[in-house]
Design brief:
It is built from 2 helices and 3 strands; from the N terminus they run H-E-E-H-E. A 3-stranded antiparallel beta sheet has the order 2-1-3, with helices on one face. The model has no long low-confidence stretch (mean pLDDT 94). The chain is of the alpha+beta class and 77 residues long. It is 23% helix and 35% strand.
Length: 77
């Protein structure tokens, strides 16, 4: 996603902080942008949608959903 966005804007860079909630079955039940330096709403929306497709390792037993933040730095290679 980022590489495609770079083709439109080669100067695109910055940090995005996501807040995501992971259910006991490993699915991402919520994801939102806490902060972003990218300034590209289209890319930010696509990132959120992509993260919602992630699957983490399932946890057995009576485990509560986990909410965490994840910073991601985007810089052209």
């Amino acid at each position: 996603l980022y590489n495609r966005a770079l083709r439109r804007d080669p100067t695109l860079q910055g940090k995005v902080v996501l807040r995501l909630t992971i259910a006991p079955d490993g699915s991402v039940t919520a994801c939102e942008i806490v902060s972003s330096e990218l300034g590209d709403a289209d890319l930010e929306q696509k990132l959120v949608q992509r993260v919602k497709l992630f699957r983490f390792e399932a946890r057995s037993g009576s485990v509560e959903p986990i909410t965490t933040t994840k910073p991601i730095d985007f810089f052209p290679a």
